[in-house]
Design a protein that fits this description.
Blueprint lengths: L1 E2 L4 E2 L1 E10 L2 E8 L1 H18 L12 H31 L4 E11 L6 E9 L12 E4 L6 H14 L2 E4 L9 E10 L2 E2 H4 L4 H4 E8 L21 E7 L13 E15 L5 H6 L5 H34 L7 H21 L4 H6 L1 H29 L5 H14 L4 H10 L3 H19 L2 E4 L5
Parallel strand pairs: 7-14
Antiparallel strand pairs: 1-2, 3-4, 4-6, 5-6, 8-13, 9-10, 9-11, 9-13, 12-13
Helix pairs in contact: 1-2, 3-7, 7-13, 8-10, 10-13, 11-13
Length: 447
């Protein structure tokens, strides 16, 4: 029995037909008496609201109300009857629906039994594999004194001074240069419109000890003095940040404007205080602790990645097509956005669309599969997510995106993103449990 906003309705018959894995056709039939009861209840509601000429509100005769509002009454009766009886049928059949149903009306009208069908996708059925004791390997590492020294040198580098010197450029120096670059005899910006900085720059700083700009560029300036001009030939790496230039050769006309020597500050109490430490010893302690936290995080990340791979490999089951399609769209969107931020042009993205989609489809299937496994494990372990858990996650994301918390919440609600946060927190809790119960041995991480 259904208890709606009007009389009680009785589902006469519900049948379920398997169309494909995770896809079913639900047929529902409701008797004519229940349909007529719904029409009567809705018509009375309209009569109470109706304002027809010559009658006080709520006093118009039912036949006149039906005549004027017949289409509206019929539409509301259909919407309510189908909506409530669909939900009741799904509940009675204990179906776990994924996404939205495709409902088609077969028969509907006054004095007739209601018949409709709903094509639905359901959660996959599978035997939950053993998720405790999943294998993972980890190389035994500790933070050494050498690691701390290297980190301290980086801190010294952050406070370095650069003094102009009247001598040839040497390793470790900074060359302040003007340059113009070409590729295949054309300005680089013709091949990569977003890479204007690679085409021409003035007073550009290049560190000779660093290949961060273009590998091999700085090395060809060693020995040059201020005012000297040189032609620099480079090979853009295959994985270069600007894909249009990957694997190509470039030619740069370079003028050295200044030679600057990098002068590091002494590792002393004064430097320690610049980083908020009481003294040099406290700075070293803080650096070691930071390095240990970084190591712990990277090890945890490695274990989690291995346990996820092991879990996914322990069971196979069909996935709902709509869930995979939706997640594929999300992955494609992320990949396109990342490529755009890297300066990849639309034309190149269009050329790579098949490759992008293929990668996205594989990734999406793994994500959807993991989500179903996480849900089942959460049920098994009675893992729940509280409102406080979701709020804490929202606060973390607001800080990460450098947004006021109130604004972040408004944006979240606007795009109905609360459920997404809920799923993130639930997955985090489940993966933490899996990680804590992993069987870890020494060795290179399992790939």
């Amino acid at each position: 029995m259904l208890h709606g906003s009007f009389n009680s309705f009785f589902i006469v018959n519900v049948t379920v037909e398997n169309l494909a894995p995770c896809k079913k056709l639900v047929r529902v039939e409701l008797d004519a008496a229940a349909v007529d009861a719904a029409f009567a209840a809705i018509t009375k509601d309209y009569q109470k609201q109706a304002a027809l000429p010559g009658f006080r509100p709520g006093k118009a005769p039912l036949p006149m109300v039906v005549k004027k509002y017949d289409a509206e009454i019929k539409e509301e009766a259909k919407r309510k009857l189908i909506g409530e009886n669909y939900r009741q049928a799904i509940e009675e059949q204990k179906l776990q629906v994924v996404g939205y149903p495709d409902i088609e009306e077969v028969q509907f009208g006054r004095g007739q039994a209601l018949q409709f069908t709903a094509t639905i996708e359901t959660a996959p059925e599978f035997q939950l594999p053993e998720y405790k004791g999943l294998p993972a390997q980890l190389e035994t590492k500790t933070v050494s004194d050498a690691d701390v020294e290297r980190a301290l040198e980086l801190l010294r580098g952050q406070n370095a001074k650069f003094e102009t010197v009247a001598r040839p450029l040497a390793g470790g120096d900074i060359a302040v240069v003007n340059y113009t670059g070409t590729c295949d005899g054309k300005p680089i910006s013709e091949l990569a419109p977003t890479a204007k900085g690679l085409t021409e720059q003035t007073n550009f700083w290049v560190e000779t000890a660093d290949n961060g700009f273009i590998p091999g560029f700085a090395a060809q300036l060693i020995g040059a003095q201020a005012g000297e001009k040189r032609t620099v030939n480079v090979d853009f790496p295959a994985d270069f940040v600007t894909p249009q230039l990957s694997g190509k050769k470039g030619v740069y006309e370079v003028e050295v404007v200044e030679v600057k020597e990098k002068v590091l500050p002494p590792l002393d109490e004064e430097l320690a205080k610049k980083f908020g430490a009481e003294n040099l010893e406290k700075l070293k302690e803080g650096v070691r602790k930071d390095l240990e936290n970084e190591l712990k995080y990277s090890q945890s990340k490695a274990i989690r990645a291995q346990t996820i791979r092991a879990l996914l490999g322990r069971v196979n089951f069909e996935l709902p097509e709509s869930a995979v399609a939706n997640e594929t769209r999300n992955v494609v969107y992320d990949l396109v956005r990342q490529n755009t931020q890297r300066g990849v042009g639309r034309e190149l993205i269009e050329k790579q669309k098949d490759e992008i989609y293929s990668h996205a489809a594989v990734s999406a299937k793994e994500r959807v599969k993991l989500a179903f496994l996480v849900g089942r494990i959460a049920e098994q372990e009675k893992i729940t997510v509280t409102q406080d858990d979701v709020l804490k996650r929202a606060q973390q994301l607001a800080i990460m995106y450098q947004m006021p918390f109130d604004q972040f919440i408004k944006d979240l609600q606007k795009r109905n993103g609360v459920n997404e946060l809920y799923e993130q927190v639930l997955q985090e809790k489940v993966l933490e449990l899996i990680e804590k119960n992993a069987t870890i041995s020494e060795g290179a991480p399992i790939r």
